[in-house]
Specification:
The protein is an alpha+beta fold. Helices cover 66% and strands 16% of the residues. The chain is rod-shaped, with a radius of gyration of 51 Å. The chain starts with a helix and ends with a strand.
Length: 200
């Protein structure tokens, strides 16, 4: 009898154990599923992180490329500007010296004009003319050019008006009647304006 009474109890215990086993298995399955989901999520976040890092790296590369191109362009402009300035210095390096010589040219011109009036100094005049023409030729080789004024229209880029004279005729209005001091250019750059009298 005790054996018979113990049997239902044993069956119940066995059932309980089976239920506990099933529950344990379910929990294990759920744990496995959760772990698998977490791993998948981690893999996704790792891919996202990698994609984000790649995007940031590409953006940084673009920024650096832009900076490099700008810097390269700035340097190229600087190099061109420096070369231009050097060429200008070489071309017009003697400007100060030539400007200092201009009064000597003026004296030559005045001396030649004064000699024209006297017949006694004819031989001396010819000698001075030879020296003057040689001097002008040498200065011309250095890039010095005389600013022409005779019969020219008044131009503020080349001329400086020191007197306004009533025009003898209508066609002479605005034209230069007389040059008081010769103007000069050095390699197309005005180093001294011609001082002139202009018809008005």
């Amino acid at each position: 009898m005790t054996k018979e009474m113990n049997q239902p109890q044993n069956e119940e215990i066995l059932k309980n154990e089976e239920i506990i086993d099933e529950m344990g298995q379910n929990e294990e399955n759920q744990a496995e599923e959760t772990t698998q989901e977490e791993t998948e999520n981690q893999e996704l976040t790792a891919e996202e992180q990698l994609a984000n890092m790649l995007a940031e790296a590409q953006q940084m590369v673009e920024e650096q490329k832009d900076k490099y191109l700008r810097l390269s362009a700035e340097f190229d402009n600087y190099r061109k500007r420096t070369l231009k300035e050097k060429a200008e210095l070489i071309k017009n390096g003697g400007e100060k010296t030539l400007t200092a010589i201009l009064p000597v040219l003026d004296d030559f011109e005045r001396a030649l004009k004064n000699m024209e009036a006297s017949e006694e100094t004819r031989a001396m005049k010819e000698g001075v003319e030879l020296i003057f023409s040689k001097f002008q030729k040498i200065l011309g080789q250095e890039g010095l050019q005389k600013i022409e004024t005779e019969g020219k229209e008044f131009d503020t880029d080349f001329h400086e008006a020191i007197a306004l004279i009533p025009a003898p005729s209508e066609d002479l209005k605005g034209k230069i009647l007389d040059c008081v001091q010769t103007g000069y250019m050095l390699n197309e750059k005005v180093i001294r304006h011609a001082k002139v009298a202009v018809a008005q």
